[in-house]
Amino acid sequence: MSQHPPTTPDTWQCLSQFTAARIALGRAGISLPTRACLDFQLAHALARDAVNLPLDFDQLAHSLSVQGIASLCLHSQAANQQIYLQRPDLGRLLSPASQRSLQKLKPSAADAVVIISDGLSSTAITHHAEAFLSILLPSLQAQQYRMPPVCLVKHGRVAIGDAIADHFAARLCIVLIGERPGLSSPDSMGIYFTYQARSGFSTDADRNCISNIHSNGLSYAQALHKLLFLIAGAEQLKLSGVALKDQSTEADLALPQANFLLDF
Question: Which tens digits make up the pLDDT trace of 158-199?
């Protein structure tokens, strides 16, 4: 009987504790071990679910209402998920019904508007949007920013925030959106920030992005710290995007700084 183990371990195995990436999986003969294959299939299924499972906007609106947060439900011109995935341009535009809903809402003076969209990961919004709002909104209110109801946009892309910010004449446009899922992070949320967003004029170069907000990525506190830094910079420079650099540090958060390559 052979004394060789069924799985040949990888010498990098000790490094796998520092990353969720698929490294040091070992091998069984010339193939991956069964466990690694099953883990991959599970991760792939979770990523597909994140894209295809619908976000329960009614439940999200109810949860926000319980916390005393007013919201407004809107919809892009993408009628369903299939069209949303095939026609990104329609996800950037509000549906006629949503445009009418905005017109009925008398635009009061607003400094900032917060938009939440399912994007490419409903799982991300389900897991993180409500919790992040609970620290974002008080921070903005503490700075005396006037805000309309939080806008919940079904099948929306990032640029759909431009028309909403335009309607409320808000200087600051903050979009929380589900990011394209990866095989190690199916629930990653992103934040897109635009100063003086205007429909038909703002481009991706005018936006700042804070990505990888999830349990194994950027924490809510870190993401908020970066966003507030960008907001302060935008207010000073009167711009956002490529001309506004994120030079924030973790020092103010009192987070431990460790380099595992030095400690290893």
Answer: 999 999 999 999 999 999 999 999 888 899 999 999 999 999
Hey, what are 144's tokens?
């005396």
| CA atoms 118, 79, 193, 57: torsion sign | negative
For residues 62 and 42, membership in a common domain is answered with: no
Backbone angles phi, psi at 127, to 5 degrees: -80, -30
Q: Are residue 71 and residue 185 in the same domain, yes or no?
A: yes
- Among residues 69, 62, 72, 147, the alpha carbon closest in space to that of 104 is found at 72
- At residue 15, the 3 state secondary structure works out as helix
Residue 259 is encoded by which pair of tokens? 């380099």
* Residues 160 and 141 placed together within one structural domain of the fold: yes
Task: Name the residue type at position 105.
Answer: L
pLDDT of residue 183: 84
Q: Which residues pair with residue 88 across a beta bridge?
A: none
User: Which band of pLDDT confidence, cut at 50, 70 and 90, is reported for residue 260?
Assistant: very low
Residues 111 and 153 in one domain: yes
Q: Domain for residue 5, yes or no? A: no
| Sheet of strand 150-154: strand arrangement | 71-75, 150-154, 112-117, 172-178, 189-195, 207-213
Are 18 and 66 in a shared domain? no
Number of separate domains in the chain? 2
Mean of the per-residue pLDDT values of the chain:
90
Same-domain pairing of 188 and 233: yes
264: tokens are 């290893």
